[in-house]
Design a protein that fits this description.
Organism: Sphingomonas tabacisoli
Radius of gyration: 22 Å
Protein name: Flp family type IVb pilin
Structural class: mainly alpha
Number of helices: 2
Shape: rod-shaped
Keywords: Membrane, Transmembrane, Transmembrane helix
Length: about 55
């Protein structure tokens, strides 16, 4: 039943558009996760630096 629905969805033009939008959204999400990961690494480094300076004084 589900495979039949997916087959009909992929055959129709609306299904193709939905799949394209899904791919675009997934690429945007991947880009967001990568950038958030980088921001998290920078923030962690900043707080570690602050902690080291506080402990040194």
């Amino acid at each position: 039943m589900i495979s039949e629905f997916l087959h009909r969805l992929l055959r129709s033009a609306a299904g193709a558009t939905a799949v394209e939008y899904g791919l675009i959204v997934s690429l945007i999400v991947i880009a967001m996760l990568a950038s958030l990961s980088q921001v998290a690494n920078v923030t962690i480094g900043m707080w570690n630096n602050i902690a080291q300076n506080v402990l040194a004084h």
